[in-house]
Write a structure and sequence with these properties.
It is a single chain. This protein is an all-alpha fold. The protein has one domain. Helix 2 packs antiparallel against helix 5 and helix 4 runs antiparallel to helix 5. The radius of gyration is 23 Å and the shape is elongated. The chain starts with 16 loop residues before the first helix and ends in a 15-residue tail after the last helix.
Length: about 180
């Protein structure tokens, strides 16, 4: 990381001013904002169905359909997320601001895809397919937490930037504004 003149690390903001403007202007931000909670709800419902099947042996079809739906929602959010990343950062994947989230997303995609391959080829018995789905879901939960932490960081940085701008606006430039001795009492 770059260092400042005092030897302290400087942290690149999550978004530059231009990137934030592109993020706020693109419809893909709204698409991501709708798909993310929808996928999370599908994840929770599917998790319950998969765990129920593993515990009782009942509801195989419902659990299977739920995992397939969750996986297709994942594919949808990944494709639209790549478009969003291209619009905001100029690249489809692995923009510095989201590099590690994207790396872990590849694991999430691989596990979900492995589930679909096992399902459609019969390469694993149903119980092992469901255990593979649970592994995919564990990776998804970690990845979702990564993105939530990044969203929180973005909000904190935006609030900090607004506070800095407000403070700067209140500071009077001595070259153009009145000095403290010229302000009427």
């Amino acid at each position: 990381m770059p260092e400042s003149s005092q030897g302290m690390e400087t942290v690149r903001p999550l978004y530059t001013v231009e990137e934030r403007a592109r993020r706020d202007a693109t419809r893909w931000t709204l698409v991501q904002g709708v798909l993310a909670p929808l996928q999370f709800v599908a994840f929770l419902a599917s998790l319950v169905l998969v765990l129920r099947f593993l515990q009782t042996g009942q509801g195989e079809a419902a659990a299977t359909v739920s995992v397939v739906i969750k996986t297709f929602l994942l594919y949808t959010i990944m494709v639209t997320g790549c478009i969003w990343e291209k619009v905001v950062f100029g690249r489809y994947l692995f923009a510095p601001a989201f590099f590690w989230e994207d790396v872990f997303s590849m694991l999430v995609l691989a596990l979900h895809t492995a589930y679909l391959v096992a399902l459609f080829t019969g390469g694993l018995p149903v119980r092992e397919q469901m255990l593979l789905a649970l592994a995919a879901y564990a990776a998804y939960a970690i990845n979702a937490a990564q993105f939530l932490l990044k969203l929180r960081a973005a909000r904190l940085q935006a609030a900090q930037a607004e506070a800095t701008e407000a403070a700067d606006a209140m500071t009077v430039n001595p070259a153009v504004g009145p000095s403290s001795s010229e302000v009427p009492a």
